[in-house]
Every structure is written in C-alpha cells, then in structure tokens.
Task: inverse folding
C-alpha cells in the first residue's frame, strides 16, 4: 500500500493535487477503485461519520483490505469525530481526518495532538482543520501556524471561501489568504468543498500549494441523478423482472460516478 504522506509531499513538489472522493456504498467504493486503477493515480477514499454508520466500518475495512497490494487507494476518515478517529486509527485505517474546527482553537489543538500521537505509533496519516467552511469562518494564517506547530499534524484543511455542498453563487476564493497560510505552514494544504468550483480556481489553488482536493457533493448528485433518470424512463413493472433488477440502475450510477472521479483526477494533474 502507498503512503499518504509520501504521495502528498510528491504532489506539493510537483504541483498537482490528489483527489479525495467520498463513498457511501459498494458501488461508489468500486467507482473510486476503478478510476484510480484506470488513471494509475493515488486517491483518498473518503468515509464520513455518516458513512461509517450507514455501511459499517468493518464492512468498509473488509472491502478495503481485499484490494491488491498494488492498489493506490488510501482509505480515509473524512471529518471524523474524535471517537471515530480513535476507532479508525485502532482498526487500521491508513489515514484519518479529525474535524475540531468548530471547537475553540485550544481544544482543537489538544484533541488533534492526541490523535497525531496515536497515529504516529501506527503510521497513520492525520489531517486537521482550522477555520470553519463558511464565509465568516476563514482560516486565520497565524492560527494555522500555531495549530500545525503544536499538533504536529500531517496536513491541514483550510477555509478560504470554499464550502460544502453546491454553491448558490460562485465563491471568490481568497488566494492571498492561501498564500499567507502556505508561507507559515509546512504541511500539505487540503481544499474541501470543491464540487462546483470553476476549473481555473482549482488550478490556481493547486498552484498555490493545495495538494489534496475533496469531492463529495458532485458524486452524490451524479449517483442519485443517474438512478432517478433511469427509473423515470423505466418504471418498474411486476410483469417484467428485468425492470426491477437493482443492478441495472445501480450499475449505471456506478459508471457515472466512476466517470466523474476519473475526470477530477485528470483535472487535478498538471
Ligand atoms: Zn469536507
């Protein structure tokens, strides 16, 4: 298995970004694996607290551990609670994110630091976050500096105008802030909420040192929209067993998500 730390360092040096794609079921798991295989590029496979509850952490790990050694997929806990981060480190995740961004900075530092020390013992990569993903929660560069120095975290998620979900209005990313953070922080920077950003903003963010880019919303939309379009054209009928074979529409949704992941991986390259 590849190392998250080494891969991100290489990305920073060579100015490209590694995609992080959230999964929630078998089909999205396969979609991310297939896109990574086809592009021969490393990817982070994101699993949120909600996905752990929905799919079951042992099922996820079972699937992940069945991948061949040559796989470039890095299983990752996305926006983990403290408890889930601890659990995933213990159970053998190679990479976790603890999201203490809504806590006071000191508490975020204290908990992140504990997880970093647990992670270090097992070679687990730990991502932290400073700044809340909203227009009034932008990351303060000096907070980011203190956070990284005190916690020893491996990568840092920042808020520079990026947000989760689709954007109602195209955001103006604060690239000056990103550069200011970059100057005082020596770990790879992570950009969350990249679904729906324009390509040139993504390219600029990478140029200024973003090395990991998270995509969730766009994949969920694609999955749901594929199922919805299929079913609106092929209404299930009890007289036609092919019409209620879930593998038909889930297979289409899987291909659609795979295509999206493939396109994003390409976009994040130089
Ligand atoms: Zn996120």
Result:
């Amino acid at each position: 298995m590849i190392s998250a730390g080494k891969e991100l360092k290489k990305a920073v040096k060579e100015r490209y970004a590694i995609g992080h794609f959230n999964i929630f079921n078998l089909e999205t798991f396969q979609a991310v694996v297939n896109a990574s295989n086809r592009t021969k590029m490393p990817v982070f496979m994101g699993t949120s607290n909600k996905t752990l509850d929905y799919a079951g952490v042992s099922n996820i790990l079972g699937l992940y551990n069945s991948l061949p050694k040559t796989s470039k997929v890095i299983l990752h806990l996305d926006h983990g609670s403290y408890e889930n981060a601890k659990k995933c480190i213990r159970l053998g995740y190679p990479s976790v994110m603890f999201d203490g961004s809504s806590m006071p900075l000191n508490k975020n530092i204290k908990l992140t630091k504990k997880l970093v020390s647990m992670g270090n013992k097992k070679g687990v990569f730990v991502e932290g976050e400073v700044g809340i993903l909203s227009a009034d929660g932008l990351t303060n560069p000096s907070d980011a500096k203190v956070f990284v120095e005190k916690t020893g975290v491996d990568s840092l998620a920042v808020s520079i105008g990026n947000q989760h979900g689709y954007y109602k209005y195209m955001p103006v990313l604060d690239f000056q802030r990103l550069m200011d953070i970059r100057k005082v922080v020596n770990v790879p920077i992570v950009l969350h909420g990249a679904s729906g950003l324009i390509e040139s903003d993504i390219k600029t963010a990478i140029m200024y040192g973003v090395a990991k880019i998270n995509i969730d919303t766009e994949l969920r939309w694609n999955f749901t929209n594929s199922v919805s379009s299929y079913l609106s054209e092929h209404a299930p009928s009890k007289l036609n067993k092919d019409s209620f074979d879930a593998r038909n529409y889930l297979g289409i949704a899987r291909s659609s998500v795979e295509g999206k992941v493939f396109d994003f991986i390409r976009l994040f390259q130089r």
